[in-house]
């Protein structure tokens, strides 16, 4: 007689060759590979920022402005030009990448943790606990994310870590809803009933048998969520309630230099292009991971 636990074992015990195959299939997709290259360049630029330009991001250089006090255009000395205070724009964009990546990873990681805990708890226990948690989730989803983030950022003193916390408190709801749906379905499966029958505890069932099935979904939403986080951080900084100057952020670089948009368009174009490229890169990789990890998409081009 076949054990009811067998489907669970086969689903979780994925061979090492199959896991390696995910990476191979990912790099074979041109769009996903393009996204990975953009992410790698951004990470390398952020890590090596102090060594790539030789300028301090907040250094106002004597020769960084024209005689009329206007920003300098891109040149051999300042590759992307200077801003309205005579600071090297390339240096500030590279240090701004640090800000975007730190907030993207920290805020998105916290949002994934909160959303997963809420979703898996509500989906497994259901009843009054599940109903209360999901009604709270629905309430949070009813508020426009940007408006809620603006309200929270206005209450707290803006800083890098406060902005990360605000974004996490806004972005966890989508993960919670997806995890709740999948957990509710898994909780009805035979292998979960079999685990309960043999006396397995709640923690064992949740972390040994349900959570592994949720990992592909969590990985995909984690990748896609970073792009949303980058865009939201840039928006908050542009509105003046995100990361505050002199700390470099792509959003506040645009905010500081928007008055020179017509006279010095590079001050807006370059940081804007960086925001767009990084958000697009994580979207491309996330979409590819979804197609690869979702069994319904396997075997398709």
Automatic annotation (TrEMBL):
Keyword Transport annotated: yes
Family statement drawn from the similarity comment of this UniProt entry: Belongs to the binding-protein-dependent transport system permease family.
Predominant location category: membrane
Protein topology in the membrane: Multi-pass membrane protein
Domain ABC transmembrane type-1: 97-286
Compartmental location: Cell membrane
Keywords of the record: Cell membrane, Membrane, Peptide transport, Protein transport, Transmembrane, Transmembrane helix, Transport
Pfam family, one: BPD_transp_1
Source species of the chain: Aminobacter ciceronei
Membrane-crossing segments per the record: 31-52, 102-125, 145-170, 214-243, 263-285
Protein name in the entry: Peptide/nickel transport system permease protein
Database matches in InterPro entries: BP-dependent_transpt_permease, MetI-like, MetI-like_sf, OppC_N
């Amino acid at each position: 007689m076949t054990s009811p636990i067998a489907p669970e074992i086969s689903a979780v015990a994925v061979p090492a060759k199959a896991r390696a195959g995910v990476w191979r299939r990912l790099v074979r997709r041109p769009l996903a590979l393009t996204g990975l290259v953009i992410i790698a360049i951004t990470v390398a630029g952020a890590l090596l920022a102090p060594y790539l330009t030789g300028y301090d991001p907040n250094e106002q250089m004597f020769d960084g402005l024209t005689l009329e006090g206007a920003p300098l255009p891109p040149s051999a000395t300042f590759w992307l030009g200077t801003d309205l205070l005579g600071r090297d724009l390339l240096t500030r964009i590279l240090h701004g990448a640090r800000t975007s990546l730190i907030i993207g990873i920290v805020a998105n990681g916290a949002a994934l943790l909160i959303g997963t805990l809420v979703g898996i708890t509500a989906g497994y226990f259901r009843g009054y606990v599940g109903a209360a948690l999901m009604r709270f989730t629905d309430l949070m989803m009813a508020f426009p994310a940007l408006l809620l983030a603006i309200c929270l950022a206005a209450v707290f003193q803006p800083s890098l870590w406060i902005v990360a916390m605000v974004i996490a408190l806004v972005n966890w709801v989508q993960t919670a809803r997806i995890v709740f749906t999948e957990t509710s379905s898994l909780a009805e499966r035979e292998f979960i009933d079999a685990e309960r029958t043999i006396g397995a505890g709640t923690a064992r069932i949740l972390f040994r048998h349900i959570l592994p099935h949720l990992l592909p979904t969590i990985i995909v939403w984690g990748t896609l969520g970073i792009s949303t986080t980058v865009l939201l951080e840039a928006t908050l900084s542009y509105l003046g309630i995100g990361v505050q100057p002199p700390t470099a952020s792509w959003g506040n670089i645009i905010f500081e230099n928007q008055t020179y948009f017509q006279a010095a368009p590079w001050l807006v174009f370059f940081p804007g292009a960086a925001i767009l490229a990084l958000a697009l890169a994580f979207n491309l990789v996330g979409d590819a991971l979804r197609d690869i990890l979702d069994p319904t998409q396997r075997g398709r081009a």
